[in-house]
Amino acid sequence: MSASTAPSSTAIRPKLSELFRAFVIISLSGFGGALPWARRMIVEQRNWMTAEEFNEAFALSQFLPGPNVVNFSVVFGSRFGGAPGAAVALAGLMGPPLIIVTILAFLYSRYGDVEALGRILTGITAAATGLLIAVVAKMATPLFRKRWDWAPLIAIAAFVGVAIMQWPLPLVFAVLAPISVACAWMTR
Questions:
Q1: Strand, coil or helix: 57
Q2: Is the pTM of this model over 0.85?
Q3: pLDDT surpasses 70 at 7
């Protein structure tokens, strides 16, 4: 394992059963958006990673194809338990929502045209958006607490490009990723 993928010396090493249980809790708590709950449990409650380690693992997860939190569960699980850890973290994250979504799909097919359901889903969307904004702020804090170097500038450029200028995400990624990698390489 390289230094970036090895658990930190201060990290608490969870057992496979703890990994599974934690990701079941994350998946059930974070229905519609598990990232805020994953960060809270892993960084703040269980101290399995520091905020910086979480950000690095999540950055890798965003770079990989597929859903970010699913990728994160595999990266995190393998970091602490190898292939079995990746498997139990993934099963814990995906199992309960799969069962719940199957039941909800059945119910929605029967009752989806009820007007009250539309209003409920609108409220849930607003709450999920607030959670996402909160976790982005928490994840950005370590970047901005350090001295102002290139990392916050890349984050700001990405935000401006995608959110304000409304440029396509693949274009912004294609331009900023090599710049970010070069800056990181030059500062090491």
A1: helix
A2: no
A3: no
